Amino acid sequence: MKTQRWTEVKFYKPEDVEDNLLKYAVIMVWCGGGWLFVRNVARETWEIPGGRREAGEKIVHTTERELMEETGASSFRLIPICVYSVNSDAGESFGFLFAADNLTLGNILQHEICEVKIFHDPPENLTYPAIQPLLFKKVTDVISRKS
């Protein structure tokens, strides 16, 4: 089995990428004095909440749905950050990166997530170590400029 290799992550202004190209939504969540990460039942690694866009779904609805499914969040504030792309041997794919705060956590709604945890810095054992630190840095850079 061939392992997929990520070669490059790029960032774009949302208006520079056609909406129909957006396949994913990823949400960096500030909560309880740290950053929220989730762990999938099938993995021992941590990841930023997010997921795949469903057919006919607006990307903001993907973001809301994934955040609720993966964290049990009942209320939150979304902050659009940017569009990003990942180039791999399978081609280029696009996602929308959001930040979220003012989160009210509830029960985890989906069986795919077994743990939600707050970290001051991203954990070392990330599911996508070539991508997630870059997304984390982008969010923290943008948020610090807005402060």
Features:
147 residues; alpha+beta; Nucleoside Triphosphate Pyrophosphohydrolase; 7-stranded mixed β-sheet; 2 helices; globular
Helical run tally? 2
Q: How many distinct folded domains?
A: 1
Give me the CATH superfamily: Nucleoside Triphosphate Pyrophosphohydrolase
Percent of residues in beta strands:
35-45%
**Fraction of residues in helices?**
10-25%
Order of helices and strands: EEEEHEEEH
Strand-pairing-aware structural class: alpha+beta
- What is the CATH topology assignment? Nucleoside Triphosphate Pyrophosphohydrolase
CATH class: Alpha Beta
- Name the overall outline: globular
Number of strands: 7
Distance between the termini: 46 Å
So, CATH architecture?
Answer: Alpha-Beta Complex
Task: Return residue spans where pLDDT drops below 50 for at least 5 consecutive residues.
Answer: none
Largest sheet: 7 strands, mixed
The residue-averaged pLDDT reads 91
Radius of gyration: 15 Å
Structural features, described:
With 147 residues, this protein is of the alpha+beta class. It has one domain (6-146): Nucleoside Triphosphate Pyrophosphohydrolase. The chain is built from two helices and seven strands, in the order ββββαβββα. The protein has helices at residues 59-71, 132-146, and strands spanning 6-12, 22-31, 34-40, 50-52, 75-88, 91-104, 113-119. Strands 1, 2, 3, 4, 5, 6 and 7 form a seven-stranded mixed sheet that branches. A hairpin with a 2-residue loop joins strand 5 and strand 6 (91-104). The N and C termini lie far apart (46 Å). 28% of the residues are buried.
